[in-house]
Amino acid sequence: MREDLLHFIWRHNKLPTNQLCTTDDEPVLVKSIGIQNRHAGPDFFNASVTIDGQLWAGNVEMHLKSSDWYAHHHEIDKNYDNVILHVVWEDDVVVFRKDGSKIPTLEMRNFIPSELLLKYKALMENSRSGFINCEKDFGEMDPFLLESWMHRLYIERLEHKSELIFDLLNKTKNDWEAVLFILLAKNFGSKVNGPFFLDRALELDFALIRKTSYDTHQLESLLFGHFGLLNEQDCTDAHYLQLQKEYGYLANKFGLSETIAKPEFFGLRPANFPTIRLSQLAHLYNGQPQLFSILIGSSGLKEVYDVFQVGTSPYWDNHFTFGKVSRKSGKKLSHKFIDLLVVNTLIPLRFCHARHLGHEVDEELIALLSEVTKEENSIIAHFDGLGPKTKNAFESQAKLELYNNYCSKNKCLQCVVGTHLLNRNT
Length: 426
Description:
It comes from Flagellimonas pelagia. This protein is an alpha/beta fold. About 50% of the residues lie in helices and about 10% in strands.
C-alpha cells in the first residue's frame, strides 16, 4: 500500500459517499475534495466536509497510519492547524491538533472497493520484463491522451532543467551570455566530464572569453589551461608548449586560479576527448562573443546548425592528445552532437529566457524540438518495443521524463497512463 493510492481515491471520488464515517462513527459527507497540494503542507487545500451534520472548510491530510502525523511532526507545524479531516489507511493512534482538539479520522481501508484494490495490485505487478508497470497496456493507450501527456511531461522536464539555469543566472548577475557559455561547457564535457567542466566554467570570468574571442590561439590556451590540460611538466610537444606559454601569460595577467584536477579521458571515444571538445568550444566562440544573442535570435533549426558548424585547430586534425600523432581526420561537431546541444542547452535556455521575460513559447519550443532526431538509448528502445514508436527528440525527451520521474519511482497514480488504467471500468 502506498500513500499515493489514498490521494488517487480521494481525488477521483472513489469512496462510497453515502457510507462514510469517522473512527468515532460520525457520518462524513465530502462536499468538495479541495485542491491537491504537491508541495510542503497538507495534501488537499480548501476542502469542504460535513462531519456529524457540521460543515467544515479547511485542509485534508493523508497518511498510511495515523501515527505518521507525529512521525512527521505535524503537531508542531502551524501549516497543519487548519486540518479538518485526517484520512488514513490504518488508524493506529488518536491525533490531536496543537490546541489539544481531536482531529476527526477517516480510516479508508474500511471503505475502498475491493475491485479497485485488485486493479491497483495488478497494475503494480503488471510488468513482464521489469521495465515499467503498465507495459502490457502502454501500447494500447489512446494516442490523443498520450500526446497530451507527452506535452506536459516535456514541460516538466524543461522546468527541472530550469533550476540550474536560473541558479547560474543569479550567480552571473543576469548575464545570459555567461550562462550560455557555462551550459555549453557542461554539455561539451558530456556525462563523463560535464560536472568538472561545469565547475571550471563557473570559476572562469566570462569577460575573459569576450576579450580573447578574436584570437583563437589565445582563447584555446585559456580554455586548455583553465580546464586542467596544461599541467604536464615533461611534455615536449611544440603545440603544447605554445599553449602552455600563452596560458602562463594570461594567468599572470588576469590572476587566474589554478587547478591540479584534470578531465577524464578513460572510457571516452576519441571524438569526445576533452582536448577535442575544448578546441571545438574555442572555435565556436571565435569571433562571436555574443553567441547567446545569435542563437536566441535564430529563426529555425537550420540557422542553429549553421552556427554550430565548427571544428578544431589544425593541430587536432591528426591528434587526439598532445604529442601522439593519429590518422588525419576532420574534427567538426557532428550532427548528432549538435542535436544534443539543441536538446540540452539551446531549448532549455530559450525556455528560461522566455519565462524571465514573461513570454509563452512552449508550443514553439516543442515544434522546434520535434524537428530534432530522437535520442538512442535503452529507455527509448524499451518504449519503442511497447509502441507507438518514438518519432523525434520531443517524444524521446518526454519519455525520458516519464521513465525517470514516474515509472522508475512507481508514481503510477501521478501518471496519466496509470490513472487512466485504474479509472477504467471502475
